Amino acid sequence: MDRTINREASGDQLARRLPRRYSRLAFQEAVAGWLFASPWIIGFLVFTAVPMLFSLYASFTRYNIIAAPKWIGLRNYETIFFNDNFFWKALENTFWLVGFKVPIVMIVAIAIAMLLNLDLPGERFFRTIIYLPNVLSGVAAVFLWQWILAPDGLLNRGLALVGIDGPAWFVDPAWTKPGLIVMGMWWIGGNVLIYLAGLKGIPSQLYEAAAIDGANWWAKTRHITLPMLSPTIFFQIVTTIIGTFQIFTTVYIIAGSSAGGSGRDVAFGGPGQSLLFYVLYLYNRAFGKVGVGGLQMGYASALAWILFVIILVITLIQLRLAKRWVYYESE
Questions:
Q1: d(Cα 108, Cα 188) in Å, to the nearest integer?
Q2: How high is the pLDDT of residue 260?
Q3: 234 with 95: CB under 8 angstroms?
Q4: CATH code for the part of the protein at 84-325
Q5: Distance (Å, rounded) from C-alpha 255 to C-alpha 276?
């Protein structure tokens, strides 16, 4: 009897100690987790969150970096929307590039990925060759393509061999943006590999069943490949649109070198303002020369938040529309 009572008492004591022990382990694990995550959290707060909040404040001020910000309310936004023709030109050029570049890159990348997915001899070699240009520095690639697309460059010389008079790509305002699309094909390898990974994830049994039912290549592509690849396509559309809205390095270099490289040419988008894209205009408002509208950090901050809202709205619209055409196998 006494032994039974002692066992029950020791069991009660153990039951009281277990929650404390597990709570201590949970606390230690939580502390360790926060310590491991702290470098990213500190970096996010210092280099992302705080600058974003300051830029939001600066967008309502007149701030030239040198002097202290002066609160002016919505005046920057009023000037942008109602008195800044360069803003609307930059927005027009950017939307033009998004509207044409994104579908062209998507179609070409899917076509190349489908070719690489045929498991033909040399697939790994061609996969490496297609991705190799992505390793090259962006600035070096821009200078390379300026040489290729020069009026007497390599591409126009090749077109001349077949009797075609090539355009002055980065000199003629009508051809600067098509030139950017042609140059953008240079970095298509990353898109191709992502689409190829999506194609590799499609079960082969679906194609075998379709073949038994007598489906041809187009029927298989339409009813199997594209629906099963739709999550990858959706991801690529979102990221490519965001990346195209933020285009800067290529147009900064080309706008400066296509018309002599003067500060005014860079600030106002090269020949005929055809290369005046949004981030280039924002950059020159913030860090450009005073004589061409530079060192207006408050104004540039307002431009940055407008771009943020534009990209956010477009992304939310895509997320809403994705429910109608994106197929997830888990659902």
A1: 8
A2: 46
A3: no
A4: 1.10.3720.10
A5: 8
